[in-house]
Design goal:
The chain has helices spanning about 1-15, 20-40, 45-65, 70-90, 100-115, 125-145, 150-175, 180-205, 210-215. By secondary structure, the protein is mostly helical. Helix 3 runs antiparallel to helix 4, helix 5 runs antiparallel to helix 6 and helix 7 packs antiparallel against helix 8. Keywords: Membrane, Transmembrane, Transmembrane helix.
């Protein structure tokens, strides 16, 4: 159902159906919450389930707030979402010394984006900087999971990268230069990110390989 609503939402953007856009956007995360609630492992990993669910709930409120043109509050709610996702991924795959390696591309991208954005953001310098740091942490922890070397880990990493791409497009479009078809670009990458993160996290909580990795 989430896929159908997502497709409807993108069609509504292309066709400029304002009322359909307004209704379908929050429904995407609502259906992902339902999928998560029914499919996530109910017998174990409850702490992971709760953290990821909170991330989806923050995302849902953030979507509604951004539809009402409240950009700063949108940043705050998605900041909460990124914090929850970061905790989720850290619990999925706890810290190891070798995790410093995937921190390099995440930190490099954050530094470059802030270098481009900060001269343009005016009085939003502090919230933009904090958000960039936290989403880079989320990206880093997701990239660390690729050490499992399985398809689910790679899908999770792809989801985190798409989330960063989506939010970067929002920032570039708002502060640097308008992006052609920006709403479709932003929403298609955002939807793909949330779907991949949800699917991969559900499946990773159910895999024996994850339990083995925690025991290393």
């Amino acid at each position: 159902m989430a896929i159908i609503v997502s497709a409807l939402h993108l069609i509504a953007i292309a066709c400029k159906w304002a009322s359909v856009i307004y209704i379908s956007k929050p429904l995407i995360v609502v259906f992902l919450l339902q999928v998560w609630n029914y499919q996530a492992d109910s017998s174990s990993n409850q702490h992971i389930k709760q953290w990821f669910m909170m991330g989806l709930m923050f995302s849902l409120v953030g979507d509604v707030v951004l539809m009402n043109k409240q950009f700063v509050y949108g940043i705050l709610f998605f900041l909460g979402a990124q914090c929850c996702y970061t905790v989720t991924f850290t619990k999925l795959y706890p810290w190891r010394t070798k995790d410093i390696i995937p921190a390099i591309p995440a930190a490099t991208y954050m530094a470059f984006l802030l270098w481009v954005l900060l001269p343009k953001v005016g009085n939003l310098l502090i919230p933009i900087t904090i958000y960039a740091f936290v989403i880079s942490m989320m990206l880093w922890r997701a990239l660390c999971i690729t050490a499992l070397k399985n398809m689910l880990a790679y899908l999770l990493a792809c989801g985190s990268i798409l989330f960063v791409v989506s939010d970067s497009c929002i920032a570039i479009d708002k502060f640097i230069h308008p992006i052609p078809y920006h709403r479709i670009v932003i929403m298609s990458t955002y939807i793909a990110a949330q779907v991949l993160l949800c699917f991969a996290t559900i499946k990773l909580t159910q895999t024996d390989q994850l339990k083995t990795a925690k025991g290393e």
